[in-house]
Amino acid sequence: MPESTFTNSLKGFFKKQKSPSPSPESNTSSKSPSIRNNALFIEDPPLTPLELHGYSKTTKNKILTLELGEEIRNMLPSRHQVSSNWELVYSLEQHGASLNTLYSNIKPSTKYDKNGYLLVIKDQRGTILGSYTNEHFHPTDMKRFYGNGECFLWKSKLIDNKESGEKFIRFQAFPYTGLNDFIIYCTSKFLSLGGGDGHYGLWIDQELLHGVSDHSLTFGNEPLSSQGNKFSILGVEVWRIS
């Protein structure tokens, strides 16, 4: 049976790919390596050191440190990693213990908010924990969840190295798993992140006194507080990352 024009065309195509005609200008000698072999791979420039803005001169209990901030920074979306100036928009010590004040303080001035938001909480045992979210916290009706897959939960603790006598941060992040969309849900009475099987990944009350953290399907996290699934809150901060 005669071969089709399409089959002959394919044969011609592959023949050309396997046996390219040499160009008069090409030179494959070892003395003149090709431009491709000389291509330079340019690495991204180092990030500018982080700066924290917004603490007042009278603030005694500053929760977020530069060292912890740099750990968290490594987990952020690339567009926020390059941001070196983080702004404190809410502090329990500076603005009072009120969830509604937190909502009001972090509300963006424009409808098109492209900032990231870092929630930082200190529990009674000194564990520092929180979240990163792509949207600001705000109450919604009808149990409407929001946020995207960039969000994550995290926790950290300052560990003593007995051999060296120095302290170091043990940091752990819990990214979005994709198992459900229960990322952020807030009301006037509480703020929460993560859910599934009746458990919150992180929950805090309207007076910012008590918190809950359980295993959640949303983030695959373990309880964030060293106190257990229920903890007492000593401090809360929210940082805006432009």
TrEMBL record:
Keywords, sorted A to Z: Mitochondrion
One annotated Gene Ontology cellular component of this protein: nucleus
Biased composition (Polar residues): 1-10
Keyword Metal-binding: no
Region (Disordered): 1-35
Keyword Iron set for record: no
Domain TLDc: 62-242
Family note: Belongs to the OXR1 family.
UniProt-recorded name of the protein: Oxidation resistance protein 1
Organism: Wickerhamomyces ciferrii (strain ATCC 14091 / BCRC 22168 / CBS 111 / JCM 3599 / NBRC 0793 / NRRL Y-1031 F-60-10) (Yeast)
